[in-house]
Amino acid sequence: MRIAVTTFAIALGLAAGATATASANTARSCTVHRSGWNGYVTVSRHTSCPFARRVAVKAMRNIMRWGPGRFDIYVYSPVTRRHYWMACRARGEVYSNAGTRASCSGGIGAYVAWTAWRS
């Protein structure tokens, strides 16, 4: 089974699959490649791509195991060399055509969002 991930940005009002135009004050996208799924995650200006990738991977493990809902994850940042608590929310089913929309926030102004579905 393969899961695909695409950009999801509420603040920018973009539809799934759209490309975010980044500036210093808006969201930007980072590529994520994992076994079974890949794509882009949208991050805030306070979030590094290495940290966003770790958040998405850890959150997807939780979603795949327990399903959508609210949950917290503890994630290591290779940039700051610190761990941060992230509060996450996932809606929808990964195994449906609409997929799961997920976002996590926490740390020091970090925000990561994406949509994942079975491809």
State the secondary-structure class: alpha+beta
Order of helices and strands: EEEHEEEE
Distance between the termini: 8 Å
Strand content: 35-45%
Number of helices: 1
How helical, in percent, are the residues? 10-25%
How many strands in all? 7
The overall average pLDDT, rounded, is: 74
Rg calculated over all Cα atoms: 13 Å
Report the uncertain regions: 1-25
Major sheet attributes: 7 strands, mixed
Estimate nothing, just give the exact number of structural domains: 1
What overall geometry do the principal axes of the alpha carbons give?
Answer: globular
State the assembly state of the protein chains: single chain
Description:
By secondary structure, the chain is α+β, with helices and mostly antiparallel strands. It has one domain. Helix content is 15%, strand content 45%. It is built from one helix and seven strands, in the order βββαββββ. It has one helix at 49-66, and strands spanning 3-6, 28-34, 37-43, 69-77, 82-91, 100-106, 110-118. Strands 1, 2, 3, 4, 5, 6 and 7 form a seven-stranded mixed β-sheet that branches. A hairpin with a 4-residue loop joins strand 4 and strand 5 (82-91).
Provide key terms for this protein:
alpha+beta; globular
Break the fold down into its secondary structure elements and pairings:
Elements (H helix, E strand, L loop, with lengths): L2 E4 L21 E7 L2 E7 L5 H18 L2 E9 L4 E10 L8 E7 L3 E9 L1
Parallel strand pairs: 1-3
Antiparallel strand pairs: 1-7, 2-3, 3-7, 4-5, 5-6, 6-7
